[in-house]
Write a structure and sequence with these properties.
The chain has 680 residues and is of the alpha/beta class. It is 37% helix and 19% strand. The protein contains 22 helices and 25 strands. Helix 6 links the parallel strand 5 and strand 6.
């Protein structure tokens, strides 16, 4: 382009043109040179001048992270608190107990705060002695095989590595566990022991709650002795104030943009409308139900198989992991609570924490409606705990009802017994309590404040991601039973899932879910033999294991013996996955399919009976071939009976005493060769 433009601008052609052009170029050169030189001089001077005249800009202070964001010590100092109650909670119970202890503090002339160890720098524990008359209380639940809960994992890791000096720090621990599990209250015991090793002073004995017995009674009994011990230690007296202490204040929204109102989301507003990765407990993925079929051919129960599509989630899982689903309460129950309390359930409200410094601003996502709170966020089906009855007693207009409620919430033997029979054994939920006590009509906002959160339900995944990478499978039995009062109680999650059909009036059925990693894992080497014991719905993780072993075999891998012990009531009624299992056996994937049909003959036969029958083969697999043992199902009876059977086999065929046999099985557990995925 430059050449052609020069030609166009050259003007007329002629003999004298070149000489004129040369003269003009010379003058232009001088002119251009002068301009450039002038500009350079001006730039240099201007630059120097600007440098000298840099104005004094006001320095904007950087937003430093304030210590209180991760420092519970600074927060306690600022708010005048001297008791901090930490909780390690998987299902919400430990958090609930922590809140109750924190509220108690006020009745003893002290001020408490609740703290999630996941949100704070726990190495600051050594600074607690800076606060007069201070104490750290730990409500620690044990999860799985003696593991810490998710929110206490970092705290547990810190305790293991810590060499901090905690002298001057006062503490006490209440553990939540279940005696049917091998590692009963392991986390509570560990925290109690480790804090003392680091120099902290235990001011009251370790409390241990047993969920297989009466966890509520265990906690109340411990708590009744704990507070007098605190008063004695610090030389303080109880105020005697037993009045109800509200933690949240009610705000009714009469004019609000409904786009700002929560409708069931766990965390981020509108997270179910615009899904964003990664997905976890606070941000579940909406999985589409692609299959929902009844597994049993007969009988009164309903056993089901569901498949949930996770293809758009990038969720990855391994065989043995758990899928958690967030269910919703039966709308019939919700409506009845609204009717009995005579309230408009569609009223939009917020419950705001009266402690402005608390990290927990609301008991559940707010603003929301009472209907949403009772449907999505609150547990309305489990029997209410004693603290709920105590707080509600003030609203009973009949003095007898008021006295009954308070007595059941006390530590008196008569009160405990009445709570056990009238509430727990009768399986009365909050609606049943309201129905059977006509004088009790509490404000719905206080009821919503007191009820615990509705928790996610965990299921062992019944598939292998090697075969089903875009879906997770669930195997479950629908819970439904009649109570002593003649009412029909239904399991929240299983009844909700039962009605989740792939297409409902043209709409896809969706289930909020996330995956929780498990230690229930196939051996690293495919050639290692596996022995799987899972009666009933305990078959679930083993469907994933068997699918994976089949896939490995198809890949040309050497796969060790795959032995299954399964149990059900009747061959022709509830033999779950019968066709699939028999095909796996036919294909050589399952080297042994042993099934105990407990009620097909006069004498009941269970999986442990088949184990005894095949004891020589089992002992060879375990002792010689280094097989891994897996047990899934009921912890209270089946898992215990199976474990006792292995003690007997080791004792008999390994020529051991009972004590030696127990140690032998314990060593298998330590080595990861004896794993359990059980529930009670």
């Amino acid at each position: 382009m430059a050449d052609s433009e020069m030609e166009m601008d050259g003007g007329p052609s002629g003999a004298g043109a070149p000489a004129e052009g040369e003269s003009m170029l010379g003058m232009l050169d001088v002119l251009l040179f002068s301009i450039i030189a002038g500009l350079l001089i001006f730039w240099a001077v201007f630059r120097k001048k600007k440098k000298e005249e840099i104005p004094e800009f006001k320095k904007i202070p950087t937003q430093a992270i304030t210590p209180r964001e991760t420092s519970f010590i600074e927060k306690m100092k600022k708010t005048g608190k001297n008791i901090v109650v930490f909780y390690g909670s998987q299902t919400g119970t430990a958090e609930e107990f922590a809140n109750r202890l924190s509220k108690d503090a006020q009745r003893y002339g002290m001020r408490g705060t609740v703290a999630d160890p996941e949100e704070y720098d726990m190495s600051e524990l050594s600074r607690l002695s800076e606060i007069d008359n201070s104490i750290a209380v730990f409500c620690m639940a044990t999860y799985g095989e003696g593991d810490p809960t998710d929110n206490a994992q970092d705290f547990y890791d810190w305790l293991q590595e810590a060499d901090d000096d905690l002298s001057g720090v006062n503490f006490t621990v209440f553990g939540l566990g279940n005696k049917t599990y091998e590692h009963y209250n392991a986390m509570g015991k560990y925290v109690d022991k480790r804090l003392q090793q680091l120099g902290a002073k235990r001011i009251f004995d370790l409390g241990m709650g047993d969920d297989d017995g009466n966890l509520e009674e265990d906690f109340v009994s411990w708590r009744e002795q704990f507070w007098p011990a605190v008063c004695e230690h610090f030389g303080v007296e109880a105020t005697g104030d037993e009045s109800s202490i509200r933690q949240y204040e009610l705000v009714v929204h009469t004019d609000i943009n409904m786009n700002k109102v929560y409708t069931g989301e766990m965390g981020r507003l509108k997270s179910f409308e615009t899904q964003k990765m990664p997905f976890d407990a606070k941000n579940p993925f909406l999985g589409t139900v692609t299959a929902n079929r009844k597994l049993n051919k007969g009988g009164s129960r309903h056993l089901m198989h569901l498949e949930l599509d996770i293809s758009a989630s990038k969720i990855r899982y391994d065989s043995g992991d758990h899928v958690a689903v967030y269910p919703i309460n039966d709308t019939t129950l919700v409506n009845k609570i609204g009717e009995i309390l005579n309230v408009d359930l569609d009223t939009v409200i917020s419950l705001n924490n009266l402690d402005e410094e608390s990290n927990k601003k609301h008991p559940f996502p707010c603003p929301t409606s009472y209907r949403t709170a009772l449907t999505h966020y609150l547990d309305i089906t489990n029997p209410p705990r004693t603290n709920v009855l105590y707080e509600l007693s003030q609203y009973a207009t009949d003095p007898k009802d008021q006295e009954t409620l308070r007595k059941m919430a006390s530590s008196a033997t008569e009160g405990k017994s009445h709570y056990q029979t009238w509430v727990l054994e009768a399986k009365r939920n909050i609606l049943a309590v309201l129905q059977d006590m006509p004088s009790l009509r509490p404000p719905i906002d206080h009821l919503c404040e007191l009820l615990p959160r509705l928790q996610a339900r965990y299921y062992s995944i019944a598939s292998s991601s090697k075969v089903h990478s875009n879906s997770v499978h669930i195997c479950a039995v629908v819970v439904e039973y009649e109570t002593k009062t003649g009412r029909t109680n239904k399991g929240v999650a299983t009844n909700w899932l039962k009605n989740k059909v792939p297409t409902d009036n043209g709409h896809k059925s969706m289930v909020p879910l996330f995956v929780r990693k498990s230690q229930f894992r196939l051996p690293f080497k495919a050639s290692t033999p596996v022995i799987m014991i899972g009666p009933g719905t305990g078959i679930a993780p083993f469907m994933g294991f068997i699918q994976e072993r089949a896939w490995l075999k198809q890949q040309g891998k050497e796969v060790g013996e795959t032995v299954l012990y399964y149990g059900c009531r009747h061959r022709n009624e509830d033999f779950l996955y019968q066709e699939e299992l028999e095909q796996f056996e036919k294909d050589g994937v399952l080297t042994q399919l042993n099934v105990a049909f407990s009620r097909d003959q006069a004498e009941k036969v269970y999986v442990q009976h088949l184990l005894k029958k095949n004891k020589e083969n089992l002992w060879k697999l375990i002792h010689t071939d280094n097989a891994h043992i897996y047990i899934c199902g009921d912890a209270r009876n089946m898992a215990r009976d199976v474990q006792n059977t292995f003690y007997e086999i080791a004792s008999e065929l390994g020529s051991m005493t009972h004590t030696q046999a127990v140690d032998y099985v314990k060593k298998l557990m330590t080595k990861g060769r004896y794993s359990q995925d059980v529930w009670s």
